[in-house]
Structures are given as C-alpha cells and as structure tokens.
From TrEMBL:
Coiled coil: none annotated. It catalyses: Hydrolysis of terminal, non-reducing beta-D-glucosyl residues with release of beta-D-glucose. Its EC number is 3.2.1.21. It holds the Pfam family Glyco_hydro_1. Keywords: Carbohydrate metabolism, Cellulose degradation, Glycosidase, Hydrolase, Polysaccharide degradation. Belongs to the glycosyl hydrolase 1 family. This is Beta-glucosidase. It comes from Micromonospora echinofusca. One of its GO terms (cellular component) is cytosol. It comes from the Bacteria. GO terms for molecular function: beta-glucosidase activity. Substrate binds at Q23, H124, N168, Y292, W399, E406, W407.
Amino acid sequence: MSTAAMPEFPAGFRWGVSTSAYQIEGGVDENGRGASIWDTFAHSPGRIADGSTGDVACDHYHRHAEDVALLAGLGVSAYRFSIAWPRVRPTGDGPVDPRGLDFYDRLVDDLLAHGVDPVATLFHWDLPQALEDAGGWLNRDTAHRFAEYADATAARLGDRVKLWITLNEPFIHMSLGHGTGEHAPGRTLLFDAFPVAHHQLLGHGLAVAALRARTTSPVAIANNYSPVRAAGDGAADRAAAAAYEALHNRLFTDPLFGRGYPARLGFDTSAVHAGDLDVIAAPIDVLGVNYYNPTGVRAPREGSPLPFEFVPLDGYPRTAFDWPVAPDGLHELLGWLHRTYADDLPPIQITESGCAYDDAPDADGRVHDPQRIAYLDGHLRAVRAAMAEGVDVTGYFVWSLLDNWEWAEGFTKRFGLVHVDFDTQLRTPKSSYAWLRDLIARP
C-alpha cells in the first residue's frame, strides 16, 4: 500500500458498496417468491463447493434494517443492490406479487431516510426457474418478459431509485452459466451460447425503453471487463488475445454503441432479427464497470474448441480466489474504454471492485484485513490516475458490503467489508470498513 496521501476525489463522486439478492437475502420460500435457477442449481448435488445453498445466505431479507445502519455508518452515498425477479413475478411472466415489491419499497425508503441513494440492478443472474424451463435466455421471449418485469418494478420504485442497472455481467452469465456450466443454469454450450448474449442485450434495450417511460432516473448496464494480455509476442498469441478481448470486452459493449457484434468471433448470428441492434443501442446514461483482474491468454493447443487458452499472470499478489491483484489493470482498462469508445462513452461508474481473503475474527472478536485495505488503496489510486488522464469516472462501488454466499464457491470466499458469521448472522465490521469510512469522511 502506498504511503503517499490518497489523491482527492471531486465533490459529488459517488462512494458505494454492492450486493446481490441471491447472495445475501435468504427468505427464498417467503411471501410468494418463486424459484430461481440458482435455487435449483444450488440444490443439485456437486454443484457448490461446500454443498451450501442461498436459502438463508446473510438473512438480509429479515435483517435489512441492520444492514442499512451499517451503510449509514460507513458513510457511503449509494448502495447497489439487486431485485430478485422471482420475488416480483414468481413465474417470470405471470402477475406481479405486491409482497415482493413491498420488501424493496421498505428497503428503498430506509436507504433514503439514511441519506443513501438506492441503485437497483434488475437482473443479477437469478432468472425465474419457470422461464428457464421454457428455454431461459436461449428463448427470445425471455427478453420481452424481462422488459415487462422492468416496467412493473419501475412503476413501483421509479420515483425513488437514483440509478437503474439493467443487467449485471451478462458476459459472466453467458460464459459460466451457459458456456462451461460452472454457474446456473449449468449449460455447456461453449460458443453456441451466443443467443444467450443476444437475448440478454435485447432484454437490456427493451428494459431501457420501459424504464425511460416510468422514471427520469439514469439508466446503466454493469459489464465485467478484463484487460487481456498475450503470453508472447508471436502472431498466434496476439490473435488469441484479440479473440478473447472480442469475446469478454467487446461482445457486450460494441452493440451498446451501435457497432454491432465483433465479426472476428464467427458466431452464428441467426438469433439477431431486423431492428434488434437499434433496440440494443438505446442510449444509456452510465456504463457500469466491474473489474477484478486482467487475463493472460496464449494460442490454443491443437484440437482446442476455443481460439485461446488461459495462462496465469505472474508477478502479482493473489487473492483467496487466486486472482491477481492488479490495480494497473484497472488503469489500463479505463484507458482502453476511453480510447476505444471515445465520444460514445457515457460517464463510467465502477460498479464492482473487490477481493476475497480468508478473514476471521481474532481473540478479541476483531477482523483485521490489511490485504483488502491495500487492494482498495491501489485500485482507488488507479481510478484517480485515469480520471486525471481524462476518463470520466463518477463513482466507485466496493464489492461487497457483506461476506456472502459466493455462487459456486458457497460460503468459502469472503469479499465483505463486514464479516458475517453464517451460523449466528453476527455482523462485524472489518478494519477495511473503518479505513473506507475514514477515506469517505475526509474533508
């Protein structure tokens, strides 16, 4: 961690933290909530590292007042949470259950009462199982059901939510959920998963229109980005890096700005209908950037089904996920977005940035996490450096407020500024919580 003073951020810079519904809420059988693909996946033997589920998670559904108090104590100006589609429309396309929206109504009001802007994500991977049974995101109809859900949610909350995010990390949902099967719904389609990409983006565009009709609040999408580094200087390695950059970084960004899909990937684009790309390119007000690490790639071995192969990046400390801690990658990424999309690029907010470490209370019950403090220090300096070079970054959200249920890793990975004892639900702010609180409070 640098010993130099942290550079100042401009007045109005949005300081926030992020969570997602299935990872923290619990209450999966309460008040009419329908099943999601993650309920099904987590209850399938062998899918989750520790055999756990999100049935209880952090019990935020019952403890949200306590968690809002933690947000207020931290001093953040915004809280990014996700709305569980199965709470609002339990079957995905049936009637709205007002009890589901009642929960988010209370949460939004509580946030505002504590001076925290509600930032709502509509889809953070918990597709209603009934829609998956009808084809899920492989089915074009799901995009239209998503727009209806967006309309119903904004009709109830649109007067108070300060920023709407349509999709969270559609690349990850496509690749891990439908390409390799590590995430729900567990499909293994590899490059045949392209319709999932297109229908998510179509749903995004349709939801933008639905939101615009209901609210004047800004609208965004949150994409996961990773700078791509070739393992060598040879033409084959450079081609592999370009292919992966097109897949990870361009596939879900080029269409937002009217550039269509990257041709070099060679996808079967028969799922794209006339007019779809215009819908997808509806103007957005903010580009959400989720960043964790760069990716090393090389040319694939003979017989590989993919045009690239992953390689580890040396020379960086590692998180408990074995991800490289690379603030320089965030600086590089922000510059790449600024150069690549130029005048098309709206203001950026870092909607996720964080790290997993094996944090545990000491004998006095305190949780010291100096590695997380160093991570945040480095990544915030990277953001400020990019801003000084002309990149318009207007906010930074830490992933995550709480240690939570970390998808296929279950309870084995801790990202939180607040430690959670998953047996007792005791919340203990870590030293990183105090560090960030003090940084935000600087005069």
